Amino acid sequence: MGGNQTQIKFILLGITDSPHAQTPLFVFFLLPYIVTLVGNVGIITLVRVSPSLHTPMYFFLTQFAFTDICYSTVISPRMLADLLSEDKTISFTACMMQFFTFAFFAISECYLLAMMAYDRHVAICQPLLYVTIISSRVCWQLVASSYLFSFLSAIIYTWCVFGGSFCGPNRIDHFFCDEFPVLKLVCSDTHSSEMVIFAFVTINVVGTSAIILLSYISIIRTVLRMCSAQSRARAFHTCTSHLMAVSLFFGSGFFMYLQPPSNHRSLDKVVSIIYTVVTPMLNPFIYSLRNKEVKGALLGSQTSIYFTVTCL
């Protein structure tokens, strides 16, 4: 990427080109972003202040909430600013950095969801060895390794997308600098870059999906061997929140990134909104409203605050 390349400016066409729809859309997307920030910060704070939630499962959940905050912040503020601005230009460097950070946190979420599935597998299938296998040290090692691999993968993705020659149109038909809309503007041959990207997406998305699938196959086999119906229901209940998050994130991810570039259509913007705006907003509700431990910790913290205020 030479010096001349970095002087290029792109124009983000955004969600809509209708000036009358932009202000309502700003309000419509501002609320989910605020809910995303408040909900995920709330999850992190609750886990930190509640001793009953100091377990590997909730350690991974705080990391997941953190990536949701970062993942959403990479996209939403720029999208909201563009909805109120007539100047939708973005520099080559800013576009490249947006894509890099987006790729980094998206890949990190894949690995965190896989870790959470493995955590549930060990908790249900090997409960007596759970503390030994999923120790605090192992948790940090898993998270650190996932961030490292995500960082390396994001560098490769970014080089494949922005390493070509941009000498023609500069209008990105999207609301952020995503892979396929940017590759459409590259003048040089992108076949090899697309193959490398597809290979790494397959490794990251399909690889982590396989870990999740194998974990749940083992969980289902173990649960079905349980004698008590109450034990089976409790085991399945601990997994439902995770399965809902996996379905939302991986469902949209498979649709977007595991299809040929020629198949990408205007529907991609709608799917992109689902995994960049809707999913980070819903995850705190999924993990709080369907989780008795989180609801119990929340009620306990509210009770503590009430007694503190009363005493004062």
UniProtKB/TrEMBL annotation:
Keyword terms, alphabetized:
Cell membrane, G-protein coupled receptor, Glycoprotein, Membrane, Olfaction, Receptor, Sensory transduction, Transducer, Transmembrane, Transmembrane helix
- Gene Ontology CC annotation, any one: plasma membrane
Location relative to the cell: Cell membrane; Membrane
Does this UniProt record's set of keywords contain Transmembrane helix? yes
So what does this one do?
Answer: Odorant receptor.
Q: Which family does it belong to?
A: Belongs to the G-protein coupled receptor 1 family.
Designated name of the protein: Olfactory receptor
What organism does this protein naturally occur in? Answer: Melopsittacus undulatus
